[in-house]
Amino acid sequence: MQALGARLSAVGCGRDAAALIDLIAALEELKSAACAVQAEAAAVFDTVRRDERALAGVAEARQGAGNGHELGLARKESPHRGRTLLGVGKALVSEMPHTLARLRDGTLTEYRAQILVQQTACLSREHRAFVDEELCADAAVLSGLGNRALTAKVRRVAVEVDPAAVVERARRAEADRHATVRPAPDTMGYLTFLMPVAQAVAGYAAVRKAAISARTSGDPRSLGQLICDIALARLTGVADTGTPEEAPAVPVVLNLTMPEATLAGGHRPATLSAPGIGEEVLPAEIARLLASRAISSGIGAWFRMLHYAPRGGLVAMSSKQRFFPPGMAEFLSVRGAGICATPYCNAPIRHSDHINPFVEGGPTATVNGQGLCEACNHAKRDGGWRQRVVSDPDERHEVETITLTGHRYRSRAPDPPGWRQPCFRETHPGFYALSS
């Protein structure tokens, strides 16, 4: 595989347009074939690991613990994504051989194969095999289908073979309603609610009706601005005082972290976070604007100092803060930018974890602590992984994870706000100065 990768890296791109398209198409088919091999390898890995743990006397319910996490590390994906890929691989190998064949020959991409797996997850093994053969035994059936068309086709066949299972899946989906927040360009964000379609339509219609009424009464904001601001006011309980230029201020705790030089007019960026949400980078001017608006609105603002060593390690945090008690867990969250310390994991911190377990003598100290999401904390414990700190105290905190297969992965705390890797520049021949 390494030799193949080296050969691919050496492939040159000429100036023949037709040949370039042929190259791109061939590489896409190669990617799909590689994904098919990965799916098979993941399924076999899960079987081998479960057999090993069964021989070791591990309870059946825990024999697969951490397998998806380890797969995610190997593929440089989040633990959640790793568990999803493991489930897809097992379904393709054991229940959907035709879909696996279409992935192997390049007819399907990995994402499109996942659509087939996910849309048939509610079916019995026999019905799933029927859909697999109906749609993927002949590659021509999939020709020209886009993702939406493929999803609709799979759903249609699934409803035909087992309508009761599809209805039951829809019923269970209501219990999975939740809300998420994720970043958007230009210091914006998406607040998303997943709920039954009737409730979603009703909620949107109610806010839109109020926005149209406000527009009719002469409010200068656009319909989109009004829908957003009215929804925010109803969620937070504060009066809607937004303008076309500014959204309403809200009384919630946000951690706006910036260097003192930025607060005084410098240009180094700041970060913004909230409990359960990872940090987002903000330009200096936006950060100062948020701070000034918090003060001028009367909502309130409190200041706290962070201290980091010359080599970038966050070493201390002032403890004075109103409303919220100081604590080591908050320090670990700030040091990790609110994001789980597991490599490639994007989940917010939920647990404060001892890197060297407490039961094995690990101290309850910041150097032996890290912030993890709930799933990664359980996977570490149940999967039998070992961890150790590999950084000096004044460096950015770095932890090495060693899995049961002996593979090693490192995670490093992000740069503290405003800190920049020191470097030297040549001022004149033979003389160097530390660059700020």
Protein architecture, described:
The chain is 45% helix and 16% strand. With 436 residues, the protein is an alpha+beta fold. The chain has four domains: 160 residues, no CATH class; 59 residues, no CATH class; 49 residues, no CATH class; 133 residues, no CATH class. The strands form six sheets. The chain has a three-stranded antiparallel β-sheet with strand order 3-4-5. Strand 4 and strand 5 form a beta hairpin. The longest helix is centred in the first third of the chain and has 39 residues. It starts with a helix and ends with a strand. About 2% of the residues have low confidence.
Rg (C-alpha, Å): 26 Å
Instruction: Round the mean pLDDT to the nearest integer and report it.
Output: 83
Q: Unreliable stretches, pLDDT < 50, 5 or more residues?
A: 319-326
The largest beta-sheet arranges its strands as 3-4-5
User: Which percent bin holds the helix content?
Assistant: 40-55%
Number of helices: 15
Main beta-sheet strand count, sense and barrel state: 3 strands, antiparallel
Number of structural domains? 4
Output the structural class.
alpha+beta
* Net shape: globular
- Following the backbone from N to C, one meets helices and strands in this order, namely HHHHHHHHHEEHHEHEEHEEHEEHEEEEE
Number of strands: 14
Proportion in β-strands: 15-25%
**What is the rounded distance between the termini?**
43 Å
